[in-house]
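Let us practice reading a record.
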Amino acid sequence: MDVQNEINELRRKIRHHSRLYYVYDKPEISDYDFDMLMQRLEALHPELITPDSPTQRVGDVTLPQFEQVRHQVPLESLTDVFSYEELFAFGKRMDELIAEPHDYSVEPKIDGLSMSLEYENGVFVRGATRGDGQVGENVTENLRTVRSLPLHIENAPERLIVRGEVYMSKAVFEQLNAEREIKGEQLLANPRNAAAGSMRQLDPKVAASRKLDIICFNLQYTSGPAYKNHTETLDAMREMGFPVVSYSHFSNIQDCVKQIEWLGENRDALPYDMDGAVIKINSLSQREALGSTAKAPRWAVAFKYPPERKESKVLDVVVQVGRTGVLTPKVIVEPIRLAGTTVSAATLHNQDNIDRLDLRIGDTVVLQKAGEIIPEVLEVNKSKRPANSVPFKMPELCPECGAPVVRDEDGAALRCTNPECPAQLLRNLTHFTSREAMDIDGVGPALLEQLVNAGLVRKASDLYSLDVQTLAQLDRMGLKSAQNAVAAIDRSKQNDLSKLLCALGIRQIGTKAARVLAQRFGSMDALMNATVEELTAVDDIGEITAQFLQRWFADGQSRDLIESLKNAGVNMTSTEAPQDLRFAGKTFVLTGSLTRFTRDEAEALIADPGGKAAGSVSKKTSYVVAGEAAGSKLRKAQELGVPVLTEDEFLALLGGKAEDDPENGENGGQLGLFS
């Protein structure tokens, strides 16, 4: 067999097994055998690689700011209904508007990020976010990392556009939040935000690491055969290899309601988060006759489930110590089923929140999941309060090491004063090895816990004295994993100073502050000897941050750690230089609910070109970026005459507005009628 034929055969096998695994959940071969097929394909002649090859799932090129894409078929939103009365009213309207018999499809409404997926001659060529329905962002390279999305379709029409929903599964989301909790990072609110943030990463490898999935729910356009019904298109898409949303169809709204109730009762069994059910007219010709309003199609509605609230009894309040020494109270309750999962605990944040709730052990509390994911205490049912209960107070000594705790001057947090507190060690090491810090691949929380328990690692610099033989003897390691871990540790020695500064876990020194400090001072020695005045002269470094830096460097243990890292060969200098200073001297204020990215992502986009994100509006503010439900900051900006940007205008300012896409689908074909 010649090389090209072998490549074609390997691609065919890999696509077949990927489809069985990701779409039908019926694998025929082991993960190892699949990996061997991929490894063989990767080894064959790089010059023969094509964009639809299975090896192109993860790109090596960091993307520039996303270009804008005009959708050939608009990605409309849906009208929400919140009661069965509103749903029956929708059914009555359909009966009045459609003279002939008509039926409905009912599908779960996946809570993710809507995408348009374009194929030419069976090859995936472009993917874009919904955006405003008319124009979205080109996220093709990130979509290639989604394993359940076919990059190549056999016997496909010349042109095909499919609409799908990118989501993060509940299992992946819980794993990601568990890792963030160990690192002492703020937990993600829900899978939808996590998926959206992952899909907008400029580095496709970061998107790939988030293990996103996709489910397709509409055929937007095809140059191939015409279809009569929506459910026909779903079946056809499944045959093409797309993961397709489950559906049912009924001849009346009453039966639709029964299915909606069933979906609500069984949604915990689904791998994805859902926030409702979608009810649609099935006939495509009837949809076309009904048309759309300025905002949404007339032939579909989304039924939204109300947030579930339940009562439970408080059994205890436990206090955990995080990576930075912050003491966080958590309420332990009698286990209950809430929004699809068993809940036995909820965060209380701090003493101020406990005082606001007047929460006591033995109380009955009302629980709800914030964003349908993170349990929170809404209120205390004081009518069920037991006699002789007493208010809960946070401890004055660290529950892990017994050291005194102090309250932050700038907030409500209580913090352990012992830098060697054992509760902080594992979280500090996990942060040190994380992607945003030293990026030591293969050295995660499970391995670090073994190293700490075995007494092999007592501080970060101990990582650099580990050898293959020692690691290979640990549980679930083996020779190859040990070799990879030691190699990753060794590679991290060459990281820029900014990565090390972030890894040290100094208060208020994250990736952004670490980068500007490394660029300004150039070496660890220069930074350690800098005065408060020199530190505060750096953009984004205020007096409090400067004091944290000086206090950390003045500590003898910190200096010992730096010296140990130097002796291990860890780089202490920076070669980074600012590449884009378009926003130098400009201050942005973010307000309202941002839908295109998280607050941290928006601040990073501002910082990369040299800008500054501030918390309050003044005459010196350059721009206010206003999301949904913007309040007092928006009003103040308008009063002061500060320019106000929408999210789309903010993105245009960041990257320049792309010209409209020339493809308009002028050569006929069938338009799907869904958004």
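A brief commentary: The chain has a mean pLDDT of 84.
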